[in-house]
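cron nightly-structures :: item 1 of 1
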Amino acid sequence: MPRTARHKQGRVLTLDERVEAQERFLTVFAKSGIILQGAAAAGVDRSTVSEWRRSDLDFARRYDIAEADANDVIRQEIHRRGVTGWTETTHVETTDSNGDTKSETRKVRKFSDAMLKLIAGSRMAEYRDRLDVTSNEQTLGAFRDIERISRDADRSSEACDLLAEIANVGLDAGGLGVDREQG
């Protein structure tokens, strides 16, 4: 059974209050992705949310779902800005040949190249930023393994082992791998 949460003012929440506060938090967090905003809506401190995640498996599961929803809100906005675009209204003053000034309202469709690049990079390898590293085969192989493993959360201990292995290999001024143990 999870510990009883404390209200922001230090008052202990009843079970019903905790359930209601968790629902308020999850609803706001799923829409905003901001923990502090959700905690404020729930009337609890950020540390209370952390405690709920540690001690209440059902809340932790629902938190993960709300976080995925929040990530989708962000993805949707990135897509809107990069692919769908938005309309901006501009006011233009023009002067005709008689010297009369007219005020015109124009609608312009805008797009964000940066957001489109994010989408392309997340879906297509050829649009991802690349780091060109010249090193020995052992280091390059380890970096490839880490990239592959980083996509699989269940293999994080293997990634830690590879990082420790890389820590023993430095780069000399020419970018060639130098085994620190061998000098």
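cron nightly-structures :: done
The longest helix spans residues 57-84.
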